[in-house]
Design brief:
Order of helices and strands: EEEHEHEHHEEEEEEHEE
CATH topology: Double-stranded beta-helix
CATH class: Alpha Beta
């Protein structure tokens, strides 16, 4: 097996009947010659030291990490404002509370072209989450709708052991066509009220058509940036999706150690 291939495994793609495993080769993103960029391929690994001491403390994460990721989103994108509304911790304890918090083991990209309309309505609602995010940013309820561009950056961080049973695989957005994406609606995520359309990904004609990557043994001092929506790219027909999926690391027994990760999403606004 070439050095740049991390493993050969199966990923679950969507079909008309549900999901179906397909053989893929996942490349070691640390060993590829050309570093991925969130602006082109849709993802990028970065060094980032957080001041958070206890990742299980939701208050500390909200009070410290949101500001850190807001600053990072602004630095990366050049946006005028970045709204941070909440976070998702994926670990065995959270998965017991709701199955949506378990690592997602099928190939998907979070949002379709309709997300811009949905997120505008969300931030104009009376719900506490969007209201508090706008308040932190000192913005009014029409700020999202009046933005010249809407960009969603997701920040994924390993907060457990460097090795984990279900790491994240990310696909080069430029290797996936719009025709390979299948829209479906999520009425509620983890019991919340916010519904949205998401993409399932169909299997390619050949197994090497989609270029898959992972970053082995991520530390707590690294963060993976994913672009999950961009109104500018959507309007021009360019890829704004970034397919991804958890997958079983063949070198790590299930649950030993179990994955512990945290995700936050920045809604980036542009004047």
């Amino acid at each position: 097996m070439p050095d740049e291939i991390f493993c050969q495994t199966e990923l679950n793609y969507v079909t008309a009947q549900g999901i179906e495993p397909n053989d893929v080769s996942i490349l070691n993103g640390r060993m590829t010659a050309n570093a991925a960029s969130w602006e082109r391929q849709g993802f990028e690994l970065m060094d980032h030291v957080s001041k958070v001491m206890d990742w299980d403390d939701d208050d500390e994460v909200a009070n410290v990490y949101y500001d850190e990721m807001t600053a990072l989103a602004k630095a990366l994108s050049g946006c005028s404002h970045a709204l941070m509304e909440g976070h998702i911790s994926r670990n065995p304890e959270q998965a017991l509370m709701h199955p949506d918090y378990a690592p997602i083991q099928f190939v998907h990209s979070d949002f379709t072209e309709t997300y811009g309309k949905a997120i505008c309505a969300h931030y104009e609602s009376d719900e506490d989450g969007p209201r508090n995010a706008l308040k932190r940013a000192k913005l009014g309820t029409n700020a999202v709708r009046s933005s010249a561009r809407l960009l969603i950056l997701q920040f994924w961080r390993n907060v457990g052991e460097p090795q984990m049973d279900l790491p994240l695989a990310i696909c080069d957005a430029e290797s996936v066509s719009r025709a390979e994406l299948q829209d479906f609606h999520v009425a509620s995520y983890a019991g919340g009220d916010f519904g949205f359309d998401t993409f399932g990904v169909k299997a390619p004609d050949s197994n090497d058509q989609h270029r898959w990557f992972t970053f082995p043994e991520m530390t707590n001092d690294e963060v993976l940036v994913l672009r999950t929506y961009d109104s500018k790219r959507a309007a021009s027909g360019e890829p704004f999706w970034t397919p991804h999926s958890a997958f079983p690391d063949p070198n790590v027994p299930a649950g030993n150690p179990a994955r512990k990760s945290i995700e936050v999403r920045a809604t980036c606004l542009f004047d």
